[in-house]
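Hey, weird one. I pasted the Sir2 family NAD-dependent protein deacetylase sequence into the form twice and got a warning about non-standard characters only the second time. First submission, copied straight from the form history:
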Amino acid sequence: MQSPLDELARSIRERRAILFVGAGVSMSVGLPSWQVLIEHMAKELQLDPERIGGRDANYQTIAEYYRLKLGSMESLRDWMKRHWQVSREKVAASAIHSLIVSLDVPIIYTTNYDRNLEVAFEIHGRDYVKVANARDVARVTPETTEIVKFHGDFDDETSLVLAETDYFERLSFDSPLDVKFRSDALRRTVLFIGYSMSDMNIRLLLHRLWSTWHRSGYESERPVSFIFMPNPNPVQEAVLSRWGITVLSEEKNDPGEALQVFLSKLKDRAQQSSVPSVPDRR
């Protein structure tokens, strides 16, 4: 019987897996935290950070207030576009980004707004197509890796999922990108990396993925899905297992180091086979 890592590696090798990439991957190369965003919005709105919750403040709610007060998110988007990036040299030196590219998965979803994944593909000479809205979906080709900006892209302000209302509207899971994700996830193994399990948005996404299969009556046919956590957590493992998600982990003190070790092992396992890969991009 295959180990979970070997099962995932086989899906990677046969191009039946997709990645879902979270903020932890971008923070590994020095991207600002949500707290930095909160402090910037508070300063621009002339708010006392302590009066709006201090370190417990919710960036989505403050972003909602920002839009109410200023009428749009354009100024905030421009600030984030300038600051939510790192140099190409840092991306080039990132073992995590290099490993992501080398896994050669056909589709990468990300809730990150930055261009680090796109830059990594450019640095390593790999073609990709960015998908941030319904128009972009029509540009997808089977031969090129898709980088799906699930929470939007700085080049399209209307695509950003940042304020509280944006998140609430996405809870219906009926936008073009939601429909696309359901289609992709129904027939592929999904690996989630770079996420905190305290993020209720990703937890809801995982639950909805399970619920879709559960209601279908064909749950036993569902491709296995995985999530990487830096350290084992028996509570999370039990809850996520109920939703059909297998937790994989590495016992390292540094989350970035743990993810790098995991991706390196996954790459090695995916390449350890005499069975030729199947060139199926879709």
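That's the output from the first submission. The warning seems to come from a hidden character in my clipboard, not from the data itself. The mean pLDDT is 89.
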